[in-house]
Amino acid sequence: MLLVSEPVLGAPEKSALSEVIDSGWITMGARVRAFEEAFARLHGAEDSVAVGSCTAALHLILHALKIGPGDEVLVPSLTFVATANCVLYVGATPVFVDIDSADVPLMSLAEAEAKCTGRTKAVILMHYAGYLADREAWQAFARRKGLFLIEDAAHAPGLPTAGTFGDAAAFSFYGNKNMTTAEGGAVIARDSSLREAIRQARGHGMTSGTHQRVNSRTPDYDVTMLGFNYRMDELRAAIGLVQLKNLPRWNERRRRLTALYRRLLAERCPSVAAPFSAPRESAHHIMPILLPPGRDRQPVIDRLRDCGIQTTIHYRPVHRLTLYRDLYPSVSLPRTEDFARRELTVPLHLRMPPQAVETVVTALAAAVEPGAAIGAVA
Question: 178-199: per-residue pLDDT in tens?
């Protein structure tokens, strides 16, 4: 089966894990700190905070910004559910915003402006598929409205521009991301006091961690804020340090595979669209395609599956999930809903040779284009 995503893990990661185990220290310690510094350097940031997941990162950001009951946060619906869940975690209200278009499935600035109220305190931009939103336009919007600007950069690790938009950015290292620590995430925050509040809150609000107390003469600690158990451990940080060294090269390979997809789709499957047709900075996390309007998606999924090709969907609109439909039944986002009905994610990962891209497009053409011949997985 040609999978939609597949991590690259090998001997260097095994060796790094063995070193952690041999060291006898597996909870948050020196390797986590080294990973934070290396991740910050890659993004041109002063520092970063490693946490247990991107969900934890988003929650900590909203918590540290003191967003809570009575506040509204503008969020996309074309995202993973965690983006909206974190708003509920702090007691605030997510306000769902439609995408700009089928070709640019990022949050619409015009609609965000229309949905802004006196209760709106922040906007969470999600860099869908790894394609960055318009930084200058969103920065101007946030300044004009007096809003916190937060990036959900789960799809965009390794891009120097990611994490530079506004107050803070959350990154993911889940197993299907461009680099992985299995589970894990990080925060980049411009303001050092905000960053340190997030750092303290990830460990129960304690003024010192276990590793710090072992290496000092003072074993005492205090708790000065509400905190959470959102720490990263040494095992994950060790994997992350290995993966991080490869990330720029890996992102470039993803870019080349995406370019090949676009060329072959245009040649052999012209009725299928690839969003983001205009050049835009991207980490090329996934390869979303759009089937022609009115085309039944399930037969296409089945046909590709029969050829040994996995597909998936990014995403079911959050506002149409049962939880959110029950909470906010009147929400209607026609562009998001149309995109989600037609979207299909095809394989894009580093273990794919270029021939696999040709195989996917050939199978897709046979499923969608009349008279096309179908091939087997290379």
Answer: 999 999 999 999 999 999 999 9
